[in-house]
């Protein structure tokens, strides 16, 4: 399907990015479902088919703003983003001098990432893409920072996400996880604590400016969880 797209500017600390997104998420989903039978329409909402990846959600913006204020902490570091979607946090890390791997398993994500890399003069050496399903993939390497935003939206996710985050860490690695307050956040943090991670959690208010999809045009509160593996 050919998506209707738009571009807009994100200002994140000292970083300014141009981001290409779906023009209207709800209209995109309606178009995918239009003219098909009920069973086919239901398939659109299966996790690996629905284009939820195609907008910047508040948790991704909160993570990006947090990263954008980390100064020189990220320069020269290795970063993995799990479930990257449009990869706004990965783009911020690349602009700050990190060596970044953005990962997801939706088939449309690489196309959007390539366009957004081009819009922001980010090379594949700075930011590469890897197909990764955290539920089924053994880690190939560890990273200095493992990041993710709004990745805890199903009951099976707390265990899977905690395991995947921890598996990509070495001793001294940091995890930065942002979440809009879903039920499964605390079980995930409990799982990471059992795996040897100490966490600091605070709430960050971010704007949710997408008035072209379901929900309010309003400020959202997002949990920012910063974890480090105990030495």
Q: Which strand order spans the largest sheet, edge to edge or round the barrel?
A: 5-4-3-6-7-9-8
Task: Count all strands and give the number.
Answer: 9
Q: Name the overall outline.
A: globular
Oligomer: single chain
User: Which percent band covers the strand fraction?
Assistant: 25-35%
Describe the protein:
- The chain is 29% helix and 32% strand.
- By secondary structure, the protein is α/β, with parallel strands linked by helices.
- Helix 3 (58-68) runs parallel beside helix 4 and helix 6 crosses helix 7 (185-194).
- The protein has helices spanning 25-33, 38-44, 58-68, 88-95, 109-119, 157-167, 185-194; strands at 5-12, 15-22, 78-82, 99-104, 127-131, 143-149, 169-179, 197-208, 218-229.
- Strand 1 (5-12) and strand 2 form a beta hairpin.
- Strands 5-4-3-6-7-9-8 form a seven-stranded mixed beta sheet, sandwiched between helices.
- It starts with a strand and ends with a strand.
- The longest helix has 11 residues, at 58-68.
- The chain is built from seven helices and nine strands; from the N terminus they run ββαααβαβαββαβαββ.
Topology readout:
Elements lengths: L4 E8 L2 E8 L2 H9 L4 H7 L13 H11 L9 E5 L5 H8 L3 E6 L4 H11 L7 E5 L11 E7 L7 H11 L1 E11 L5 H10 L2 E12 L9 E12 L2
Parallel strand pairs: 3-4, 3-6, 4-5, 6-7
Antiparallel strand pairs: 1-2, 7-9, 8-9
Helix pairs in contact: 3-4, 6-7
